[in-house]
From TrEMBL:
NCBIfam families: PRK09177.1. It comes from the Bacteria. This is Xanthine-guanine phosphoribosyltransferase. GMP binds at residues 102-106, 144-145. Belongs to the purine/pyrimidine phosphoribosyltransferase family. XGPT subfamily. The keyword Metal-binding applies. The keyword Glycosyltransferase applies. Purine salvage pathway enzyme that catalyzes the transfer of the ribosyl-5-phosphate group from 5-phospho-alpha-D-ribose 1-diphosphate (PRPP) to the N9 position of the 6-oxopurines guanine and xanthine to form the corresponding ribonucleotides GMP (guanosine 5'-monophosphate) and XMP (xanthosine 5'-monophosphate), with the release of PPi. To a lesser extent, also acts on hypoxanthine. It is an enzyme of class 2 (transferase). GO terms for molecular function: xanthine phosphoribosyltransferase activity.
Length: 165
């Protein structure tokens, strides 16, 4: 397991603020959404926050697994697809939500299912950014984002003494 160069740890507070900021951006867009498609599992958390802010009640999941060993991307598996009712008209009027886009492979897979939907992610890395319509914060490709649901409290090495050579 190789450690990424840079770490971007996100607290629950920060995630809530950033997901709400994403909801503000989507609201400013002025579009009415007929449904939300949430990419499990990471998309479930921003989906709860955004659906509350934008009053979206019709929520579908697309269940995709790809990162098997925390930072190594394995083969992508679609465990559950999108219902025909939600996927109709190429997904026009549908909002896709995920926590982040990294290489953009997950986003590309779901975009292929719903070519006319709007894709929103809280965080984006440069490779994935072109696949996202709306996001809040960009971090560099060599940064690993640590989400609050994956974290516990531990001692942190100072940056100058850490893994950077
Ligand atoms: O842009 P990509 O390189 O495809 O990576 C982004 C995807 O990776 C993570 O999901 P993961 O597959 O780890 O599953 P999880 O959401 O169940 O944690 C994350 O939640 C995104 O969905
Ligand atoms: Mg995911």
């Amino acid at each position: 397991m190789s450690l990424p160069d840079k770490a971007f740890p996100v607290s629950w507070d920060q995630f809530h603020r950033d997901a709400r900021a994403l909801a503000w951006r989507l609201a400013d867009n002025g579009q009415e959404w007929r449904a939300m498609v949430c990419i499990t599992r990471g998309g479930l958390v921003p989906a709860a926050i955004i659906s509350r802010e934008l009053n979206i009640r019709m929520i579908e999941t697309v269940c995709i697994a790809s990162y098997h060993d925390y930072d190594t991307q394995g083969q992508m598996k679609v465990l559950k697809g999108i219902s025909p009712e939600i996927a109709k008209d190429g997904g026009e009027g549908v909002l896709i939500v995920d926590d982040l886009t990294d290489t953009g492979k997950t986003a590309a897979e779901v975009r292929a299912m719903l070519p006319k939907a709007h894709f929103a992610a809280v965080y984006a890395k440069p490779k994935g950014r072109p696949l996202v319509d709306t996001f809040v914060t960009e971090v560099s490709q060599d940064t690993w984002i640590y989400f609050p649901w994956d974290l516990g409290f531990t001692y942190q090495e100072p940056i100058a003494k850490g893994t950077r050579g």
